[in-house]
Amino acid sequence: MIRDVKAERRGMAPRGTVWLALGCLLLAGCAGQASGNIGGWYSARGGVAPSGTRIYVCHAFGCALKTPFDFSPAHMRRLKAILAKGRKSPAAERAAIAEAIAWSERTIGPVVGSDKDVGGYDLHNAGVPGQMDCIDEATNTTSVLSIAARAGYLAHHEVASPVARGFFLDGRYPHATAVVRETKGGAAFAVDSWPEDNGVKPVIMPLDAWFAERS
Fold it and tell me: How far apart are CA 53 and CA 147, in angstroms?
């Protein structure tokens, strides 16, 4: 690391140290392992669980900001119609879930200012109100799917607590994702909206494959 001698003389941390510390703090938020229940995920990360058809949208990285969003009756009808496309099979429902999450992001984005959210990790956007890291994305996806499940819109899956992978020591950046499980057999799938821009369908894959990814 290049030393910032002027900063050291002023009693300040070198610039390289500051950026490294900031990056570690932000990424460590993505590294926290999920609790055994969804409620534990929210409480451990300063989030707020959905109430009725209201969710609390996390944004600005690490759930630093939380903005309430109410799904109107019209919104709920639209959400139901999208998820109804997946009634035939678990695979069809996962495709419908991807469509529903993309729709929810396009619907919520203009209200909370996240319509320009950039997919993937971007340190320069840390703290920007309209940007989201993996903690924000995993939490918001879980919230939307939770209100859908409570309304009876999911036929083949239940919503599980988000999970996390990586902590530098294994050569991977920390990362978190929302999770659904098939009600028959219990197969788990990542519903990962973090890699894509706002309103783009999330990546859905078997959770074991998601954990094995090196990126």
Answer: 6
